[in-house]
Amino acid sequence: MRTTRTGEPYTLRPFPLFVMIFLSSLSCRSSAGVSAFLSHPSTSTHSKNVASTRYLQWRMFAASSSTEMGLAAEQGISRLETLQSLLGMFGAPGSSSAVGVRDDWEPSPSNFVASLHPHLYPICQSKSTGSYICGLRRAFANDQSNYESSSNAPWPLVESAPGQPGMKLLALNSEHYMRRIAAEADYSSAYPEVVQVYNNGLGEGMLPNQALDQLYEPGSVEKLGYGVEKYV
C-alpha cells in the first residue's frame, strides 16, 4: 500500500468540479468536429476542385502574358534571331558559362519560364549551367498597365537562373552585347563567321539608332591597341 510522507494511507483525490466541466467541454467539441467532417466527405474533393480552378486560371493568365511579352520583346530586343545565333556560335561574354564553346546556348523553347522573374524574357539557355540570357522589361513609375515607357525603350540583357533571387547585368541592350561578341570573336581570330553574322543587316538604315547601325570592321580591336577589354 502506498503511503504519504507522514505514514498515512494514500488516497486518490477527485479533480475539482471546474476541471471536470472543462474536460467535458473539450470532449464534446472534439466529437462534434469529427462528426461534421465525416458528414461532409466532399470537403477534400471541393479543395481539390478549387486548387484545380486556380491553377487553370493561372495558366490562362500566363499564356496571355507570354503572348503579350513576346510581342513587346520584338520591339525591346533588337535583332533577336541574330543575337540567338551569335550566342550559339560563340557563347555569352560576362556570363557564368564558358566563352568560345559552340552550341552551349540554345534558344529558349518558350518565352515564359515560371521560375524566372516575371519581367524577364528568356532568350537562350545554357546546356552546361542551366542559366538563361534574358531581356529585362523594366517598369517605370509613370507606366500604366501596358508598360508604354519600357516597351519603347531597349531592354537590358541579364543572366539569371530558375529560382535565383537576382540577376547579372550583361549589357544595356542587345546591339551593345552583339558588338561585344563580334569584337571578342574577331580578337581571338578563331571565329571569322561570327563577325559576318553580326554585320548581316547593319548599315542599311534598319536600326533607329544610327550609332549602332554601323558595320564592325575586322581588326578594329588590334588597331585600337589596348586589347579587347578596353575596346568593349
User: In percent, how much strand structure appears in the residues?
Assistant: 5-15%
User: Which overall shape is indicated by the principal axes computed on the Cα atoms?
Assistant: elongated
Low-confidence runs: 57-64
Number of helices: 8
The count of strands amounts to 5
First CA to last CA: what distance?
Answer: 95 Å
What proportion of the residues is helical, as a percent range?
40-55%
Main sheet attributes: strand count, strand direction, barrel closure: 5 strands, antiparallel
Let me know the average pLDDT: 76
Across the major sheet, the strand order is 1-2-3-4-5
Quickly give the structural class.
alpha+beta
The H-and-E topology, N to C, reads as: HHHEEEHEEHHHH
Question: How many whole angstroms does the radius of gyration measure?
Answer: 32 Å
Can you give a write-up of this model?
With 232 residues, the chain is α+β, with helices and mostly antiparallel strands. The chain is built from eight helices and five strands. It has helices at 17-38, 43-76, 80-90, 148-151, 174-188, 192-199, 220-224, 227-231, and strands at residues 105-107, 120-126, 132-136, 157-160, 168-171. It has a five-stranded antiparallel beta sheet with strand order 1-2-3-4-5. Strand 4 (157-160) and strand 5 form a beta hairpin. Helix 3 (80-90) packs parallel to helix 5 and helix 5 runs antiparallel to helix 6 (192-199). The longest helix has 34 residues, at 43-76. It is elongated. Mean pLDDT is 76; it is low at 57-64.
